[in-house]
Input
Amino acid sequence: MTAPLAQILQAIAGQPRTPGELARQLGTTEDVLGGMLRTLHGGGFVQEAQSGAGACSCGPCALKSLCRNAESDTPNLSLLRLTARGEAYLRRSQT
Output
């Protein structure tokens, strides 16, 4: 059985997701998911995927083609993406 935090990381891997999208995909509510997302964010496993935020600057990001915030005139969505630490943890948990 996969740990709940690893399930969240797996759901985010490859495509940034909003908390609402994650909750629907994982069969839970945003309120329940919120605590786990705060834990992952605080531990440096996920970050906001917004243009110009942290390491996500819509430059060399491998997810730019999937990101709904890249070069958008609409307000930024609250999108989450894995950090390098989150990707490393996910690789270790899958072996």
